[in-house]
From TrEMBL:
<dbReference type="InterPro" id="IPR051547">
    <property type="entry name" value="TDP2-like"/>
</dbReference>
<dbReference type="InterPro" id="IPR005135">
    <property type="entry name" value="Endo/exonuclease/phosphatase"/>
</dbReference>
<protein>
    <submittedName>
        <fullName>Endonuclease/exonuclease/phosphatase family protein</fullName>
    </submittedName>
</protein>
<dbReference type="InterPro" id="IPR036691">
    <property type="entry name" value="Endo/exonu/phosph_ase_sf"/>
</dbReference>
<keyword id="KW-0378">Hydrolase</keyword>
<keyword id="KW-0540">Nuclease</keyword>
<keyword id="KW-0255">Endonuclease</keyword>
<dbReference type="GO" id="GO:0004519">
    <property type="term" value="F:endonuclease activity"/>
</dbReference>
<feature type="domain" description="Endonuclease/exonuclease/phosphatase">
    <location>
        <begin position="19"/>
        <end position="253"/>
    </location>
</feature>
<dbReference type="Pfam" id="PF03372">
    <property type="entry name" value="Exo_endo_phos"/>
</dbReference>
């Protein structure tokens, strides 16, 4: 199975339409089975097209553009909090095969949509990709945040994943894999495996360079966009994409793609 995760920084990018073109072109050419997206924004006053989805929902725009190319993806999205006052920000999962089920749940203590620290996970059960797979699109908080401690969020996420025989936890974890003794190690110490370390072939590592929103004082490379699993898996390739070398830059995060199959 081919997998992609990307924090989109949706509708906050310069040359946004051009960057949408780049994302759509790569999805169409790489034929990903599963895509997890974070910071999937829609304007709070845009017309509703279905359920919670507004016509400028960033994931919906991608799906519609792909449909014009004859490429069909199924989509699920939910809203976690307001961003920049005007956006409903959430996370999404796209799948080439229909979902067997979908759900979303808060992992943060706060569930106030006016608090940007509210964190909601979207989960989908996907069939036909080697075996039924639980896919989580994750956008979590920060290790040293006393107001909204990420350990609580990680515990909630781990508790949910315990129910799954095969789970992929994908997304922006906001915890740097280069740092020891913090959120990344907490996840690994609780039984998750990182597809980066399992991969036979690796291209790149860091997904953020320097200062971005939420990392205002950062001056170094970070690996915070991750692909984790709770089950035995063979990973033939793990690569950083949309980093200016392996594909054009489309966001303040690079994406990550992998090719893998369940053992």
């Amino acid at each position: 199975m081919n997998i992609l995760t990307l924090n989109c920084h949706a509708w906050l990018e310069d040359r946004q339409q051009e960057k949408i073109d780049f994302i759509v072109e790569r999805i169409a050419s790489e034929d990903y089975d599963i895509i997890a997206l974070q910071e999937v924004n829609q304007h709070k006053e845009a017309p509703i097209v279905e359920g919670l989805i507004r016509e400028n929902n960033f994931a919906y725009v991608l799906v519609e553009r792909l449909k014009e190319l004859g490429v069909t993806y199924h989509m699920t999205w939910d809203f976690a909090h307001y961003g920049y006052d005007v956006y409903e920000e959430g996370v999404a999962i796209l799948s080439r095969t229909p979902f067997l089920s979908t759900e979303s749940f808060f992992v943060s203590k706060t569930t106030d949509p006016n608090n940007y620290k509210s964190r909601k996970i979207v989960k989908a059960i996907v069939d036909g990709v080697d075996a039924p797979t639980a896919v989580y699109s994750c956008h979590l908080g920060w290790w040293h945040d006393e107001e909204e401690p990420v350990r609580h969020q990680l515990d909630e996420l781990l508790r949910r994943a315990e129910e799954d025989d095969r789970a992929l936890l994908l997304g922006d974890f906001n915890n740097d894999a280069f740092l020891r003794g913090e959120g990344y190690d907490y996840l690994i110490d609780h039984g998750l495996q990182d597809l980066f370390h399992l991969a036979t072939e690796r291209e790149g590592d860091a997904t953020v360079q320097g200062k971005i929103a939420g990392w205002d004082e950062n001056k170094k490379a970070l690996r915070i966009d991750l692909m984790l699993t709770n089950a035995p898996i063979h990973v033939s390739r793990h690569a950083v994409v949309f980093d200016g070398e392996n594909g054009p830059i489309v966001s303040d995060h690079a994406g990550v793609e992998a090719t893998a199959f369940w053992r």
